[in-house]
């Protein structure tokens, strides 16, 4: 079953490269006004630290805002999913091959997240800018809270003493439903890593097992969700292309050379800035709503 999942993930790589590459080639003369060097830099930084456990969505949102690389907030969820798909697939291939996990549990939870992302992406593409700003603001603050719980050890406490590598019965059903919901929320900008980690801990799985489940879930759902975002033009092409290039390089370097890097201080800085960015998006959402009603 694990081999089947690896084959499926490789297939997703081909799918994403085909769909994304075809769209980039089709619009090659007008990809956008974003800076390619800055976009590549954003991808390298965010996926480098994503491989080390920080997560990519919230830091990407932060850097995109700081560097002013996106002038339409409606395209942010799509850009996040499209741009990080390949780097996340690469991470998943690494974790699945080195961590022992019960194949059926892994396959079913990944499948649930993928179906959730397909449904979620179809909903997100129809949201107006004001609602996207509101959702992104809440997503960032929720991400910061979960990152804080992880940093303080609150989430890790849930996994202490857990040795199981798979789920059965009611726990498996809960895991499937939970990952379905998390897959849908990820298309709206809510990172899957921390909530998925908390869920598998509470279901009794070993902390180490969380990594292949998290990475494989993200890896499978992103290319699927990206199809809808690309189809409806709800993403920034040049920005996504640059982040993809930088992200792949970042994952390779992080996995090979600096997996033991202490990122505690950096993570706390990221949490503070993410909260500020989340509040900024909520403020923008309020102003957009007031202007629309005026």
From TrEMBL:
One Pfam family, short name:
TauE
Q: Where are the transmembrane segments?
A: 37-64, 85-112, 132-149, 170-194, 200-227, 239-259, 265-282
UniProt lists the family membership as follows: Belongs to the 4-toluene sulfonate uptake permease (TSUP) (TC 2.A.102) family.
Please give the name of this protein: Probable membrane transporter protein
List the record's Gene Ontology CC terms alphabetically: plasma membrane
**What species was this sequence derived from?**
Enterococcus malodoratus ATCC 43197
UniProt entry keywords in alphabetical sequence: Cell membrane, Membrane, Transmembrane, Transmembrane helix
Predominant location = membrane
What membrane topology is annotated for this entry?
A: Multi-pass membrane protein
Entry's localization field: Cell membrane; Membrane
The record, for InterPro entries, names: TM_pro_TauE-like
């Amino acid at each position: 079953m694990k081999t089947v999942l690896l084959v499926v993930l490789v297939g997703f790589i081909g799918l994403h490269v085909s769909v994304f590459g075809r769209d980039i080639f089709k619009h090659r003369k007008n990809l956008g006004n974003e800076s390619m060097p800055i976009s590549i830099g954003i991808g390298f930084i965010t996926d480098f630290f994503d491989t080390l456990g920080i997560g990519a969505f919230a830091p990407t949102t932060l850097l995109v805002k700081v560097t002013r690389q996106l002038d339409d907030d409606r395209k942010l969820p799509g850009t996040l999913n499209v741009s990080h798909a390949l780097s996340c697939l690469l991470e998943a291939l690494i974790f699945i091959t080195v961590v022992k996990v019960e194949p059926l549990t892994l396959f079913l939870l990944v499948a649930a997240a993928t179906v959730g992302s397909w449904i979620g992406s179809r909903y997100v593409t129809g949201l107006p800018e004001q609602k996207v700003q509101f959702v992104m603001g809440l997503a960032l603050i929720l991400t910061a809270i979960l990152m804080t719980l992880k940093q303080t050890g609150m989430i890790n406490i849930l996994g202490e003493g857990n040795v199981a590598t798979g789920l059965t019965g009611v726990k498996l059903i809960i895991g499937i439903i939970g990952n379905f919901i998390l897959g849908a929320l990820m298309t709206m900008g809510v990172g899957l890593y921390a909530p998925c980690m908390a869920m598998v801990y509470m279901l009794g799985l070993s902390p180490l097992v969380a990594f292949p489940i998290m990475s494989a879930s993200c890896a499978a759902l992103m290319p699927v969700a990206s199809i809808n975002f690309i189809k409806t033009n709800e993403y920034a092409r040049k920005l996504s292309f640059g982040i993809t290039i930088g992200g792949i390089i970042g994952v390779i370097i992080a996995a090979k050379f600096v997996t033991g890097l202490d990122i505690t201080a950096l993570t706390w800085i990221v949490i503070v800035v993410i909260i500020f960015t989340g509040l900024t998006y909520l403020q923008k959402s309020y102003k957009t709503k007031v202007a629309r009603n005026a």
